[in-house]
Design a protein that fits this description.
The complex is a heterodimer of chains A (about 725) and B (about 160).
Chain A: H1 14-25, E1 48-49, E2 54-56, E3 62-66, H2 75-87, E4 94-98, H3 101-106, H4 126-148, E5 155-158, E6 161-164, E7 169-172, H5 173-180, E8 231-237, E9 244-248, E10 259-265, E11 269-274, H6 277-286, E12 289-292, H7 301-311, E13 320-323, H8 326-332, E14 335-343, E15 355-361, E16 364-370, H9 374-385, E17 392-397, H10 411-420, E18 428-431, H11 434-439, E19 447-455, E20 461-470, H12 473-477, E21 510-516, H13 530-548, H14 553-560, H15 565-578, E22 589-597, E23 600-610, E24 616-626, H16 633-652, E25 658-659, E26 662-663, E27 681-686, H17 704-716
Parallel strand pairs in A: 3-4, 8-18, 16-17, 20-21, 24-27
Antiparallel strand pairs in A: 1-2, 2-3, 5-6, 6-7, 8-11, 9-12, 10-11, 13-21, 14-19, 15-16, 15-18, 19-20, 22-23, 23-24, 25-26
Chain B: E1 2-6, E2 9-13, H1 21-29, E3 47-50, E4 53-56, E5 70-72, H2 84-92, H3 101-114, H4 120-126, H5 136-147
Parallel strand pairs in B: 1-5
Antiparallel strand pairs in B: 1-2, 3-4, 3-5
Classes of the chains: A alpha+beta (about 725), B alpha+beta (about 160).
């Protein structure tokens, strides 16, 4: 019964697959996979595959299959908890095994979506993985009933032990798994899932399943891979986007130790291949290279800022939401407030550099990749190598950080495959330097925002206009999503539509519009994506308006949130936990913010002090989140703490200036990352309402910056309107 | 060719004199728990114990190392994850992606060796490695736990 049923080659063309993968990468092809019961390729060794998600070994080990990528966000453990909850197995006997994209493809994509981004890992697969666990339980119990010839209704199951109380007999899952695997799966529609309030495995702060090998250096990240005969490559791409590689003089390096070859990589890059990566990198450092930098070499932060500034008053727009007549209401209001904000480009800087190992043979392509989108990696490998998809495979490695960098964009897989073409049957491991990574990212989009508000005589907000001028992610990653020039993605968090990234305020006259202004620098999703900038603009300006109205920041917001009870509930929970309104130690000041993204509601209160010299200290942060369900509160807490570190790093230090067309903060000496000493005490308030499924990896980052900025405003009396803070004189 | 004392074993290693110890460890010795994160001594992912002190191995050229230098990498910290820091890391469920954690653990182990009961301020000063996932709060908690002899239990509920 362990034989894969689907042996034939799929008819799906490479192009179809690439299109499908691209659609996933672009953010949102919901496959609606609801087939937890099909047989599939690839059974864990020594186990009986009960269904797609569950395989059980004779010793009762439950191997739970995971299709999504793990990059630290804890999805692997959360998904296993959901399956195990319905499976009723012994959690101490759970292990996981990743599904490869080749297995998924050969099984008609039975495991569904593999892409891991947009905080979707759990919320868009929870239904079918839970049903997978439940279906496996039903089959295991049925197998026991068959063996004992008793009605299934007389059996109970707990922690992987099936009991027939009437005859005092028990069977372990491991004893019936082989028989269960032969049974006809139950009808998916007949499966009743548990009420999450009765969960005993899911919903609990269990420790992660993937910690042990992170403690002793034995975990093999893709960058650590060694294969027989492997060579290593170091690469330099033209430092100016849009520029090209003109020439290089390989004679200067070919005699260096270990160097095998110098390879042109497409039109823009050159790589040195050597027996070790350090030797390749050393040779690349001294390789004479002539770039044709092209017209973009004249661009700079100043020219880009000028372009964005023009967009703040441009008449043609690229997407808006409105109600009432905001411009008229503001013009007629007795009190007007106006401000312009700005946020910079940011690099992702995952600590594991971009890397990819590729081995190409005449009729076979293999790659070992840290990727947030295994199927997009497979498509890239196939596309560049010319080898059909069903002869390609991506070998899974957990990522040393992702943060959105390794999703739809598979630039490093393209490069490694291109280089490997010059070395048939030889594994080629491409590793970027940190400098290359910083110089060739898909950055968080740069933008400016002009906000105008009108207050009536008693300080009520009567009109609000928010104009965002900035770069578009869709213009790079998913142009098809821009319809009739409208690109609503850049207004994430400002939507009227409930459920995903809805603005939590009602303003009688509201206009929010976006003007697309694209520079030559490519942009992409950066953990939290556009909620980050948009929360800064909205929530810091809200603070300015509240103060202009002479009102308390919390009360002013509450008055606008009456129709948004879920937004309000999280804000209230955080305010209560933080002790909003209560006295603080001398010199300490509070700021708050609330926002929504990835289907979850977030709020934060920051406590900061600013020294007379303008030095900031963030003492304490209270963050609240309602993600609907809370699959692992311990991991939610970890993600919230991580989000504070990620968000504070951006707030205090994150800046990627452009000079002579190129990015200039190329390592951690200039692209500073917050250290432990600056980490505030973080308190996490988890307030699930059990009526929807929201994300966790990203939603709370966006409230970090504005709550801190608003606390600085409270401390200094001066609003902060641009980031990072290292470039701002606070006093 | 030189003799290198790593994790209690003396090996013959051949590399160019300017090769950083980090890459000697990773590519010549074949121990990959020590990570490359920046190459300029900023991130600490390459931290090892060099003659008992925590050092960033990307800054130590192979040519300056002698046989009398004692090098310990994450693989040599214990044979079975039983070092108090490793146990505390497991108990507190510190790692997220895990890429920086070899360096963090080596830094914490060195701190506790010299200062068995560090204050928060001591931890601030000693634990300067970058964690991009932001596990700092749990790192602090785990260092305190290791200092207090905790971390024995590695089953049950974390969080």
């Amino acid at each position: 019964m362990n034989k894969p049923v689907l042996q034939r080659h799929l008819k799906l063309s490479r192009r179809d697959f690439i299109v499908a993968s691209a659609a996933i990468a672009g953010g949102g092809l919901a496959l609606g996979m609801n087939v937890p019961f099909a047989r599939a390729e690839g059974t864990p060794e020594g186990a009986s595959q009960v269904n797609l998600w569950v395989a059980i070994k004779p010793d009762d080990t439950c191997v739970i299959r995971v299709a999504r990528s793990e990059m630290g966000q804890g999805t692997l453990t959360g998904l296993a908890q959901l399956v195990a909850e319905e499976l009723e197995c012994d959690w101490s006997k759970v292990t996981t095994e990743g599904v490869t994209p080749g297995q998924n493809l050969a099984s008609k994509r039975a495991w569904g979506e593999m892409g891991t981004g947009g905080s979707r890992g759990i919320r868009t697969s929870q239904d079918y993985v839970r049903k997978g666990g439940a279906a496996a339980r039903i089959m295991l119990v049925q197998a026991a009933a068959n063996q004992w010839s008793v009605p299934v209704g007389e059996l109970t199951v707990s922690k992987g032990i099936i009991t027939h109380a009437a005859s005092s007999r028990t069977l372990r899952y491991g004893e019936v798994a082989a028989a269960a695997a032969k049974l006809t799966p139950p009808d998916a529609k007949e499966i009743k899932l548990k009420d999450p309030k009765t969960w005993t495995i899911a919903g609990k702060p269990l420790r992660r399943l993937d910690t042990a090998d992170k403690l002793d250096g034995s975990k093999v990240f893709a960058i650590d891979l060694t294969l027989p005969g492997m060579l290593c490559a170091a690469i330099k791409d033209c430092p100016v986007y849009g520029g090209k590689l003109r020439s290089y003089d390989e004679s200067k390096v070919l005699g260096m130790p270990g160097v095998k070859k110098v390879v042109r990589v497409k039109e823009t890059a050159v790589a040195v291949v050597a027996d070790t990566w350090w030797r390749a990198k050393k040779a690349l450092d001294v390789l004479p290279i002539v770039w044709d930098e092209g017209e973009n070499a004249t661009k700079s932060s100043a020219t880009i800022a000028e372009m964005l500034k023009e967009g703040l008053t441009a008449t043609a727009t690229n997407g808006e939401r409105m109600n009432g007549d905001a411009l008229k209401a503001i013009a007629e209001a007795p009190k007007k407030i106006e401000a312009v904000y700005a946020t910079p480009f940011l690099a992702h800087a995952p600590l594991e550099m971009m890397n990819c190992t590729v081995k190409l043979s005449a009729d076979r392509a293999d790659a070992w990749v840290p990727t947030q989108n295994l199927e997009a990696s497979l498509a890239a490998l196939s596309e560049v190598s010319g080898i059909p998809l069903d002869k390609c495979e991506i070998h899974r490695h957990d990522l040393g950080g992702g943060f959105g960098r390794r999703g739809g964009t598979q630039d490093y897989v393209h490069q490694a495959t291109e280089i490997a073409k010059s070395f048939p049957d030889t594994p080629i491991k491409l590793i970027w330097t940190r400098e290359e990574d910083q110089a060739h990212d898909f950055y968080r989009p740069i933008s400016q925002c002009k906000l105008s508000a009108g207050l009536d005589n008693v300080g009520n907000l009567v009109g609000l206009h928010v104009r965002v001028s900035g770069q578009s992610i869709n213009a790079i990653a998913n142009p098809n999503a821009i319809v009739n020039g409208k690109d609503m993605r850049q207004l994430q968090g400002y939507y009227d539509t409930p459920g995903d990234a809805q603005l939590g305020y009602d303003v009688p006259n509201l206009l929010i519009d976006y003007v697309m202004r694209n520079s030559h620098v490519p942009v992409g999703p950066w953990r939290g994506v556009n909620t980050n900038q948009n929360a800064v603009y909205m929530e810091c300006f809200m603070e300015e308006v509240a103060r202009a109205a002479g009102k308390d920041s919390l009360e002013f917001r509450r008055a606008l949130m009456k129709e948004h009870p879920k937004h309000l509930a999280v804000l209230n929970a955080v305010a209560e936990k933080a002790g909003w309104g209560k006295p603080l130690p001398e010199g300490v000041h509070r700021g708050l913010a609330q926002f929504m993204g990835y289907g979850s509601y977030s709020a934060a209160v920051a406590e900061v002090s600013v020294s007379p010299q303008g030095k900031l200290k963030v003492h304490r942060m209270v963050l609240g989140v309602n993600s609907g369900h809370a699959v692992n509160p311990g991991q939610i807490e970890a993600q919230v703490q991580g989000s504070v570190a990620f968000g504070l790093t951006a707030t205090m230090y994150g800046d990627m200036p452009v000079a002579k067309g190129r990015m200039t903060a190329l390592n951690f000496d200039t692209y500073e990352i917050m250290r432990l000493a600056e980490m505030p005490k973080v308190e996490t308030v988890i307030v699930p309402t059990y009526d929807f499924w929201g994300g966790i990896g990203e939603p709370t980052i966006c409230v970090v910056a504005p709550s801190v900025m608003n606390a600085i405003f409270a401390a200094t009396g001066k609003p902060v309107r641009s980031l990072p803070l290292k470039n701002v004189k606070l006093v | 060719m030189a003799k290198l004392n790593i994790n209690g074993t003396v090996r013959d290693v051949s590399a160019e004199a300017d090769t950083p110890l980090l890459w000697v460890i990773r590519e010549h010795v074949g121990l990959t728990g020590t990570k490359y994160g920046c190459g300029i001594a900023q991130c600490g992912a390459c931290s090892v114990h060099f003659n008992g002190e925590v050092q960033r191995s990307c800054q130590i050229p192979f040519g300056q190392i002698t046989e009398s230098d004692v090098i310990v990498t994450i693989e040599g910290l214990s044979s079975d994850r039983s070092h108090p820091v490793q146990k505390a890391w497991a108990a507190v469920d510190v790692p997220q992606c895990g890429y920086c954690q070899s360096g963090q653990i080596m830094a914490a182990a060195a701190l506790l060796k010299h200062n068995p009961k560090p204050t928060d301020k001591d931890i601030d000063e000693a634990m300067t490695n970058i964690c991009r996932c932001g596990t700092y709060q749990r790192i602090r908690e785990a260092v305190h736990m290791a200092a207090n002899g905790g971390g024995a239990g590695t089953t049950g509920q974390g969080g």
